[in-house]
Amino acid sequence: MSEYVVAVDVGGTSMKGGLVTRSGTVAATDRRPTGAELGPGNVIAAVRSFTGDLAARGAELFGTAPAAAGIAVPGLVDDATATALYAANLGWRDVPAAELVPLDVPVLLGHDVRTGGLAESVLGAGRELSDFLFLPIGTGIAGAMVIGGGPYGGTSGWAGEIGHVPVFPEGEQCACGQIGCLETYASASAVSRRYSARAASPATAEEVAALTAAGDPLAAKVWDDAVEALSLALATYTLLLDPSAIVLGGGLAEAGPLLADPLAVRLGKRLTFRTAPPLRKAALGVAAGMLGAALLGWRAAGVPEAGASWSPDVSRTPAVP
Length: 321
Description:
The chain has helices at 40-62, 112-123, 182-186, 188-199, 205-213, 217-241, 250-253, 257-270, 288-300; strands at residues 4-10, 14-21, 26-33, 69-73, 76-78, 83-87, 92-96, 107-111, 132-136, 144-147, 150-152, 245-249, 279-281. By secondary structure, the chain is α/β, with parallel strands linked by helices. The strands form three sheets. Strands 3-2-1-4-8 form a five-stranded mixed sheet. Strands 11-10-9-12-13 form a five-stranded mixed sheet. Helix 2 packs across helix 9, helix 5 crosses helix 6 and helix 6 packs across helix 8. It starts with a strand and ends in a 21-residue tail after the last helix. Pfam families: ROK (PF00480).
């Protein structure tokens, strides 16, 4: 069997890819634009070209084709048929995994957040946990429900859409059509949008966090709304599924204690008759999706135990250019 797999994490604006050996060595990494603004056909061609170029690089390094490929994509995924059913930010529908790889090798396709959750489960902040929620808070919010040691996708692949749990029933309208969704208040884009609208001055979520820390009252109100929304949604999740921990990732989690400390306090107060699960920061950062795709690739190659012996030391996590 070949020494490596091709792993690609497809995002709305860029793709991160790598070559990962069975022992967990990341032999090469690269990044490419997704090109979603040019239409779904261009996205498919871009992913196909990227995986082909990575495999060519692998042939130079190892002298063989890859053992398999793993690809993480946004939107709705049918794991059973390895089909990307729909992604609003990419514009595609019903794309078989085979169309994304110009090689005759096994391919596994995974939902991007669940694939990141798989990586955090095997390699990162959830390594020793069998049940936890991986919650990356970025442009949007979705969760990977790790149950019984693996990500749970539900009957139709929609499990984990915690960003569209209504937390303020009389609140602002979400882009999904509902009212008061978590994502409308607590995503990085929502924090930026809500502050910018009130201040009549544009600011990123990172800048809103800095203003909050500096005592700006308007920023503090927007940040407080985000924390309140998260505490409501996570209290409900905890009562339903009793996770061992909640692993926070994405751009907003980079605020560290500014987010985690008040969130832990409010979550604890909401769960009046039980202990709140601990909050952990995700360990793998932007590499989680690519490393999760590598794990999928080795599963496609018939080596499901790959990853079990990989080092938990996150210093080995590759820097994706």
